[in-house]
Design brief:
heterodimer, A: mainly alpha, 6 helices, 1% strand, elongated, B: mainly alpha, Rna Polymerase Sigma Factor, Chain: A, Arc Repressor Mutant, subunit A, 2 domains, globular
Chain lengths: 178, 220
Amino acid sequence: MRPSPESESFEALRRALKLKHYEKPPPGYFEDFPRRVMAQIRAGRFAEPDTFWERLTWEVPWLTRFVEALFTRPAVAMGFGGAVCAVLIGGLIYSENVAFNPPKPVTFVPIPEAPVVSAPAPTPVIPSFGIAHQSDLALLSPLTNGSLNPPLPMSGSLFDHFRVSAQPVGFPAPNSAP
Amino acid sequence: MTKPVAAKPSGTPANDPAAAPANSTGPSSPPPDEVDLVRRARRGDLEAYDELVRRYQERIYATIYHMTANHEDANDLAQETFVKAFRALRSFKGGSSFYTWLYRIAVNKTINFLKQRRGRAHMSLNDLDFNAEHDPDLMVLISDKTPRREAHLAELQERLNAAMQKLSEVHRLVVTLHDVQGLPHEEIARIMDCNVGTVRSRLFYARQQLQAYLSDFIKP
């Protein structure tokens, strides 16, 4: 069994270490020290944030100990590596065993039109936007909750509604000679 | 608040000039007004914080200095420690004593600094107090080298610091906190966020290493 620090004689070393008690900073150093600290606090120096590692060592001490153990203890590193591999292999096996269920396609469900009661009211003019195929409507369905009411009429051009038919205008020609 | 620590650290000399202030206002028995000072400082009272700085500056500086063996680095890091502590006071929940919390900031800063500085270390040692020449414990070590006591003490100082720099950061920290600063194992465990057994085993290993490095200077 290992002896305790007190049971083994380190008397000579203790005497030598006593020398360090006599190492003193320059005279007057501690009289001036608080003033310098206060000046820095007032001036807002050291206001820059700590480095990431400094914050980590201060706020998450167990994590830094763990990282150090990874580098200094092979058993910890092996255990951690094995655990990571196990998770990866387990994930692969799980993903292969689970059947792939593709998501159901969104269906277009037209809402039935309101029944006509009597004489048809003048319907507002709804310009057609030239949606040519049903698939175009399906694209709109996520935005319109899968329904459009009333369904847009199919047509070929955006300007169909404004198409003007031209008629020849005949102006009587004036008599050529009196 | 702080748990009372009954055990006096072994190996703390009774006439230890550095340990004396640590024992008088030690971490195990915070003065009654400390809680009030911390509360006022949290509200932004700089006078209260100035008092806290005066109270702990020597111990924080000494810890960092013994870790870095460089006065300029210790000066910068000690100032940064107190400035950071002031900024972070709002996050101080009072789960430990202010002293322990402050120490943890200093220790984390110093260890991060030493990791970045690794391989580029150079010592800038403080002068020895003239009382060192009259310390009987030190005279035992250099008695056969008299009459040039001063030169031999300076040589021992350099060898001792060089040997400490060879230790890893955590081992150096344990020796500094226990054998130089006189903190009990329990307090060191709280500062280092580990258990007392770990502190003891690190201390034992560090002492063995130091003794080996200084084998020609000290006879076990």
